[in-house]
Structures are given as structure tokens and as C-alpha cells.
Amino acid sequence: MTSTYDALGRRLRRVTPSGAASDWSWTPEGRVAALTTAGMTVAFRRDAPGNEIERRVGPAAVLRQVWDQGRRLVSQTLVQGGGTRQWDFRYRGAGRMTGAGAAEMTLDGLGRVTALTSAEHSERYAYDPLGNLTAAEIRAGDRFAESADDDTSLTYSGTLLRTAGRRRYEHDGQGRLVRKSVRTLSGKLREWAYEWDAEDRLLALTCPDGALWEYTYDPLGRRIGKRRRDGSATTQETVFAWDGSRLAEETSDGRVTTWDWEPGSDRPLTQVEGPAAPGPEPGPQLGKELGQEEVDRRFYAIVTDLAGTPTSLLDREGAVAWERRATLWGRPLAGGSDGGPAPAVNCPLDFPGQYRDAESGLHYNNQRYYDPETSRYLSPDPLGLDPAPNHHGYVANPLTEIDPLGLTPCKVVVRHFTTKDSYQRIMSGGGKDAILLKASAPAKGHPTGVYVTPMSPADILKKPGGFKSFLGLTKEKSEYLIEFEMDKALFKAIRGDRGKHVWYSPGDLNIPKSAISSHGPTSGWTP
Which domains are delineated in the chain? Predict the structure, then answer.
């Protein structure tokens, strides 16, 4: 993997091991202007706060996006030769998403989805206090077929999964899954066996048909290969290449697939497929007839949802070539976009940072493997118990939260300062399990949001001018505080020098009361 950068450290060109090249251009403000790969250019346009509002895929298609004042995605509209398609996203007062496209969601007090209903299927879920999924009910009708239970009750020993419907799970002393068995309706027993190394990396998988899959990793724990073994012979092999923590390329069966990602993000932008030994990179095609070499390199632009999960692939003409069909937690639903046969092209990328393994149905998630049937990881968090008590759990809501490395999200303690009246209103509102901090528009043109600081009152008072000069808060507005722990990824830094210690959440913040470490008069705060 080789890259070229400009004087400001921005990437201008990347060439993968297969020879696939990607070229980037930037605006004077330092934002991405365009990506060119496989003879196609994807151009971007953003609004003043930095939200992407338009993406042009070659000359054939335009994706337009609308954002609200809280920087939440409200709609996506695809305009191309075949017409217009639109996806809408809906939220309720606490800033939680309750609708996406044709799907409507019901949430519990902690923001977890308990029901999802669309024109094609419906889902219902229940959870225990640790966040474990305890019940799942899926109704997909005749249009989709599922291989596992549609109604599932899950049982645990602590945080270790024991049963899920007809499935049985066995773990070793380190909490890693070593065996899964399923009793089919006909009474046949199907078993999977898992082998791990001392670093908690999955080394081998034996499938019910006897197929043995072996997995290899580099020193950073990134998977660089998988192969199917038949005795001493390798009958199928895939090699992976990485661009930092993001998958850049896979090579298998004489074909190579390459991905480009939005800089600094876990959101994929393009997928290009072609021969494993391609010829020279084609130049941009602006309405020109493609030669056979270019045809062999199939280009697709990737449309993602709010979290960054791929939802559609657009071909060179802007037509939808593939659409994701899955349950809330990523369990595949069979059928193509029209309910017929599966499409010829597929995108193996799933939730941000995840790659779907066809041989097992598992999602490789950098440092761990995720099972979409149970919404859990197969092994405990490598960071240990300190980051989270449920060290096998995935995120609370996959529609809005991500875990691209398979590790517990980075938590940070922050403080929200406010007036006495606002403090009393906040603490008496919300619900039994959480409080709500509503986004507001501050003075001096800063974005609408919930404003916090990672600095303690003691550290602030050591600064010249204290709250007024350092945070811009009057004595009245810094009289009370609420101290809590949240995922750092939820916050953005304001522009300017204060961005180091003044952060904001673009939307309302729903804070579990269990995350609150201190609240009350600022003068009474103690570390």
C-alpha cells in the first residue's frame, strides 16, 4: 500500500497491492472535493458546518442529503436517469431515530430498539439490565426466508450466552465460543467448532459440512487471510490488504475487490471489482464508451445510512445494483431488491468496521467476530471488564452507534454547566432511568447542541478569568453542574482555540442515570 500526500498531510493518491489507484482532491477549506478511481469521479459538496449535502457519481447520478439544525441526517434523495428515490429519517424529542425509510422503530428508555416494522417484515426485541438480548421475534412473510428461529428466547450465565432458540452455545474458561450446535426441525444436529489462539484471535472454524476454514493475522491483529482446507490441500483462499484500520482490498479466485473510505471515517465510499492482475488504471470516463478493460473493472458507489452501514451500491450509470436486506442486528434476509433472486453483485461490508464472512455468517470486526443472530461478539472485549460490564455486547443501537474496531467505545467524563432553574428542570424531567439534555443555540454563532467540557471546576478556576473567560459562561450559568460519562464519539469540538476544552453534541443527549457521577451546585463539586 503506497500513498502520496500534499504539504498539509492530506492524501492525494493511494495505490493498493493489486495496482488499483485512487486520487483525491481537496477544497481550500481542507475538505474532500472529489475521489477518482476506476475511471469514475465522485464529487462532494458540503454546507458551512461540514455536512455533506451533495455527492455526484460520475455524470449519471446525484445523491442529495438534508440535515437539521442538530446536524442529524433528515433525508437522502438519489436522482438518476431512471428517476428519483428518497429515504427519510425521523427522530423524536430526545434526538433518537424512530424511523428510516419505510421502517418505524419503537425505543425503550435507554434508546434500544424494541420493535421495528416495515412493509416487508417486522421485528420485536427484549433486553435484560446488562443489555443482553433476551428475546427476538421476526416476521418476514413469504418474501424472505430465514434459516434459524424466527422466534427466539435467549438464556445466559452471567454475560455468556447459553441458548438461543434451538441453538446451543459452549464457551471455554476465557469466555470464548468453542462450539455452537443447532437441532433442526427434522431432528438433525448441526455443529460448528471454533479454535482460538492465546491472543483471543479465531484461528479455525469447522462447519457442519466438515469444511475447515483457517484464519491468519498480522501483528496488529488485522486479519490478512482466510483459506478453506481439504485435507492438506487449500481449495479456496482470500487475501486481505489494509489501509490503517480499514479494509482496502481482498483478492480471491482471480478477482480483486477494492474499497475507498471517507478520510478519517469508517464510512465506505466506493467498491471496485476486477481481475486480480489488472492493466493500467483507466482515466475518467465522461460519457465515453468503455473498453473491455474498463468493463472488467466494475465500479460501484456506496450509499450508507446514518451510522455508516452500506445500504446500496450504484453502478456507473447510477442504477441501484444492490441493496442491503437485513434485520436490525444484521441478520440477512434472503432475496433481491425486488424480492426475486439475489443480485449479481454483493457488498460484504456491513456495520462500520465489519466484513461479512459467507462461510459462517459471522462479521469480522477487526479485533473480534460479531454474530448478527445474537447481536453479540464471540469473545470478550480485549480491553477487559473495566470499559463495560457486558464484555460480549455490541452497541445499544446499531442504527446510530458504531464499534468499528470490535472494542468498547472510548468513554470520557464531561461536565454540563447550567443555571439553578435549568438544573432542577433537567433532574426532575426525563424518566426513571435517564435524564434529557436538550440541544440549544448558544450565542456568537456556534452550532446548536448540548455543550460540555472535559475539564473539572477546579481546573477551570485555575485559569485566568475562570468560567467567564475560559468557557464563556456567566456566574449564573455555571452555578450548577451535571457530570457524566459518555462515548467521546458523540461530541464535536467547537471551532477555534476553545475547541480543546469546549465540546458539543449536535442533538439532544439522553443520559442514563447510571452514567451520572456527580450533580448539584458547582461549589460543592469534589473529585
Answer: 2-377 (2.180.10.10), 411-524 (3.20.170)
